[in-house]
Amino acid sequence: MTKVPAITATFWVIKVLSTTIGETFADYLAVNVGLGPAVTDAVMIAALVVALVIQFRTRAYTPWIYWLCVVLVSIVGTQLTDLFTDTLGVSLYVSTAVFAVVLAVVFAVWYRQERTLAITSIDTPRREAFYWGAILTTFALGTAAGDLATEALSLGFRNGVLIFGGLIAATWVAYRLGAGQVLTFWIAYVLTRPLGASLGDLLTQDKDFGGLGLGASVTSLLFFGTILVLVIREQVLVSRHGVAVKGAGPLGGYRQDYLWAGAAVVAVAMAGWVLRPAADTTPTAEPAPVTTAQAGAEPGAPAALPRQAHPTTKLGNLGKFAVIVTDVKEKVAHNDLAGGKSRAKDLEVAWDDAEAGLKPRDSARWHQLDDQIDAVLTALRAPSPVRGDCASALDTLLATLSQFDGVS
Prior knowledge:
The protein is mainly α. It has two domains: 9-281, no CATH class; 319-405, no CATH class. It is built from 14 helices and no strands. Helix 1 packs across helix 8 (216-241) and helix 10 (319-333) packs antiparallel against helix 11. The longest helix is centred in the middle third of the chain and has 28 residues, at 125-152. The model is unreliable at 245-252 and 278-305 (pLDDT under 50).
């Protein structure tokens, strides 16, 4: 019996939404919970192994198990790309090319062994192993290609939604005009990864960074609720009719499937509109004035009149980060290292939340600040933090923020 779902409209909706859920959940564990990238990676890989063991042990397609695996594969695939890019410093051009070659090799070996790449033929353990290997690689490739477009090419997540959505639409048109079903499926599967990530960034990022300002928590809950409803429906249909036949009842049938998919998209859009922050319906306030103290002056220096930041980079006004860093610096200056460590958590969360909006503007300078923030966090979170090391890292970061904000 086949181990994968029928490819219908709701399949693609769940796939796109699960991409966003996977990415935001991993960031939540790493930053908000404080597990860090290494522990989060280990936890997610372990969870994926357990989920895949359950998936392989089932005798037929079970929606909740299958989609749990997809979400976890989304997380691990993203982490693979981040390992290449952020940890090893591999260019996005190189990582995109590498994952494309790996995917081609997986397909070549799969076809040589099974003489088919059709997902409707996933009915043996070996074919299922090839399938999940390909799925993992498509997520890594989709992440690298999406980051290449939105970050390295500075297209941003708004353009990402339009570009990747348009490419998926073009792939569907090609399929309707006679292009191969297997080819168009895998092309669309790769493209849904960057589409889901761009859509998630559009919803979660602050209005100042070009997003709608829903935040990661609200967006994740909204998407999770939609996925839950669609997966429950899928589970009911599979239990009644099997995976291949959707059935003609009030829940089933391909026509009903289009209606459910459309209703899910409309529900997400309407909920996002209702839940959007009040700030999105009012004029954006002018940035707060930046004082000499916020610009990094030594404690006790003569007070200066508030000065407006005049950003010198495409990153824009970074004043809100400078305010947090100044607070941390004051705590460290009074030897309150525990308080500084706690306040630095706010900096980490704020910086991570703004990544998708800031990084495409100026990737080089974003990485410069990111490295300096990591240095501050490392110094404060050391087993026995040294006040001088913490102060030095904070001075360097605050000087860079002041330089980028045009505040002297």
